[in-house]
Amino acid sequence: MSESKPDKYRKVAYYPGCALEGTGHAYDRSTRQVGKALGLDLVEVPNWNCCGAMEAKNIDPKVQTYLSSRIMAITANKMGMDVVMAPCNGCYHNLKKAEYDLAHDPKSAEVVGQLAGKAGETAYQAGQVETIHALEWIKSAIGEQGLRERIHGGLKGLRVANYYGCMYTRPRHIFPEKDAGPGSESTAKPHFMDDLLAAAGAENVEFALKTACCGGAHTLSDSDMSTRLVLNILQAAEAAGAEVIATECPTCHSGLEMHQVRAEKRFGKKTQVKIVYFTQLLGIALGLSPRKVGLHENVSDGLAALKRRGAA
Amino acid sequence: MPIHEKSLIRPENLKTHEQLVVDGVDVSGHWSTFIQSRVVTDYNEALQEEIAALPGGEYIHRCWQCGSCTNACTVNAVNPDFNPRYWIYLVRMGMESELLRDKDIIWQCVSCNKCTYACPRDVAPEGVMKALSHWLELKGHTRKSPSMIFDEVFTDQVIERGRIEEGRLIQRFFRRTGQALGQDWLIEMGRRLLRRLPLGLLLRLGLAGVHAPRTRGWARSRAALREYVAQEQARQRRALGLDDLIEGARRDAAGITHG
């Protein structure tokens, strides 16, 4: 308890999740590189499993609770650690949701206990582990001042729309540490990404759709709906004068990329704004090469926008 | 019951006489517009209980109809017929036939959680939308939605191997929904990606496609999850009386008269 937050977050368990091993690999790569450049230590959770994403809960919510709690159980019982960091909004949300349900719903705790028992594992107990997002990790361990001191080159006034998506802030009751007054994150108007990117030299545009939905859950099953929702986000970002949209979730990121192309192909609506992970922008600001942060692994090619500003 | 929902006034219930004189006053055309009297008799008194028995629907009884959910709703902004508050009202009133008018759009909830965030009564309307979709499918009112098929394909893979490999997931989903893999946008995305030769990424995705990633020692978790899901699905079928319905239909078909 005596350990201050910055120290506590300098070495954390790392849960990349399925998407970061696949199409979201650039996010995994840039997160690890930024951590390294900032002198932070990530220890990957061994033999992890899928958190259940947006889908398992629709088959049965407690399947998701078990899947997510298993990550926290490994963190506590196998790694002996008490903080796990998940860069994916979906994973982060699900671990938080599992924590909330296990603390407040005896039935959830009972079912998870039974499933873990049958699987031959020690069940996770609420309170053993704190789950944080990559944004909270850098914000708490390094902070804006720390980031400013380490910036090498910076983002040179690159105009950024910060896009947080749904799962980072909703519903509020699973994030008790948010909305806790000055310095804490806000669920109505999140600002941690704005804070970090401003410290890295970006100019954040006034963007009303920070927490609008990209339709990620139905990206393949109701694609026209998702394309409409994404197009709103892309057009609002452009109208606000953004050169890039910064993302913090592989599902949002690939959704924005996919439906930018789809809007062009199916509805003839072309948008120019580029889509980049916030960790890629931080990496560039810290002086890492575009390749090192996986900029060439994005479908949306943000390199020219960064070069135009002299940032890359 | 009085009609206090505007949406219950259907065009077919509005009557207008082209030529009508009442007590010497000409009320032809829109002056003679009447709402045909309407009495609801086909309540399903068990509807709320049935929805509450499905995962996500547990807290529907808390709703006090403030409308915060619909006001916050992402899909409502695109399609005004998508109205969570109204559907919750219909379920609580037992007005099944009214609910069924919207059966083909209820599955379109994108789970953005804006409703659950806004709800002052912790109804968790997002969960209710999922419960409604399940109910419609279980009762045979709708075919399995593409969303449900995706949930099944996804969860099957997680329970089977512990992890998701996206290539396999997309292929299986497209096959089950009868869509071609060669979608124009997918080809265009590949083209844009290949332009900058992300060899490391391609190698990684290729390898994952061959050796699908899996969690080691997963067999016992798999067995436990399968058993649990089967047991929960059986419970849901009982709560909705589906086995009785199926048995009844079987007996009818076989020409056996009931007791």
Protein described:
- The complex is a heterodimer of chains A (312) and B (259).
- By secondary structure, chain A is α/β, with parallel strands linked by helices.
- Helices cover 46% and strands 10% of the residues of chain A.
- In chain A, the strands form 2 sheets. In chain A, strands 2-1-3-4 form a 4-stranded parallel beta sheet, sandwiched between helices. In chain A, strands 6-5-7-8 form a 4-stranded parallel beta sheet.
- In chain A, helix 5 crosses helix 6, helix 5 crosses helix 7 and helix 11 crosses helix 12.
- Chain B has 3 domains: 30 residues, no CATH class; 92 residues, Alpha-helical ferredoxin (Fumarate Reductase Iron-sulfur Protein, Chain B, domain 2); 94 residues, no CATH class.
- Chain B has a two-stranded antiparallel ribbon with strand order 1-4.
- In chain B, helix 8 crosses helix 9.
- The longest helix of chain B is centred in the C-terminal third of the chain and has 21 residues.
- At the A-B interface, helix 2, helix 4, helix 5, helix 7 and helix 11 of A face helix 3, helix 6, helix 8, helix 9 and helix 10 of B.
Strand order of the largest sheet of chain B: 1-4
Per the CATH scheme, the topology name of the largest domain in chain A is Rossmann fold
Structural class of chain B: mainly alpha
Beta-strand portion of chain A reads 5-15%
- Can you give the helix content of chain B as a percent range? 40-55%
Biggest beta sheet summary of chain A: 4 strands, parallel
Q: How much helix, percentage-wise, in residues of chain A?
A: 40-55%
Strand content range of chain B: under 5%
Task: Label the CATH architecture of the largest domain in chain A.
Answer: 3-Layer(aba) Sandwich
Mean of pLDDT of chain B: 91
Series of secondary-structure elements of chain A, N-terminal to C-terminal? HEHHEHHEHHEHHEHEHEHEHH
Number of strands of chain A: 8
- Rough outline of chain A: globular
What radius of gyration of chain A results from the CA coordinates?
19 Å
**Rounded mean pLDDT score of chain A:** 96
Assembly state of the chains shown: heterodimer
What's the arrangement of strands in the largest beta sheet of chain A? 2-1-3-4
Sheet of most strands of chain B: 2 strands, antiparallel
Give the number of helices of chain B.
Answer: 13
Give me the number of helical elements of chain A. 14
> What is the string of helix and strand elements of chain B?
EEEEHHHHHHHHHHHHH
